[in-house]
Amino acid sequence: MSWILLALLTALCLALYNFFIKLAADQLPAAVGAVVLQLVAALLGGLWLLRLRLHGQPLPITNKGLLLAALAGVGVGLAEILTFVVFSRGVPSSVGTPVIVGGSVLLTAVLGLVLLREALTLPQALGLLLIVVGIGLLARGH
């Protein structure tokens, strides 16, 4: 499967993630929702890892890789809790999700530029500027 199809499938999964958090946010406390979400995600990840091992795929692991994955886990865990909190305050999914996702894309790009010294082309810079404008427009009404 090409990377673009995988990326679009990933986008679909993230859309479902945000959509179901929105629906669940009024049904239970943010911490409970985040823990359930993380347990299910850990179960799926564990099954995927088991599948890889059963098929004899090598799994090279480094301490740095484990640390970076753990730091990503801290980020996603906090993001899940905060997403539940945002939606429990009545923010529409059509506003909250683009602000959260757009903001994360923008901040990730800034981190890449500053910390990883990645290059930015003019079209990419314009795209990031449009994200800023979009977040501003979405946030105006709420």
From TrEMBL:
It holds the Pfam family EamA. Residues 1-138 form the EamA domain. The keyword Transcription regulation does not apply. One of its GO terms (cellular component) is membrane. The chain crosses the membrane at residues 34-54, 66-87, 99-116, 121-139. InterPro entries: EamA_dom (IPR000620), EmrE-like (IPR037185). Keywords: Membrane, Transmembrane, Transmembrane helix. This is Transporter family protein. It comes from Hymenobacter daecheongensis DSM 21074. The lineage of its organism: Bacteria, Pseudomonadati, Bacteroidota, Cytophagia, Cytophagales.
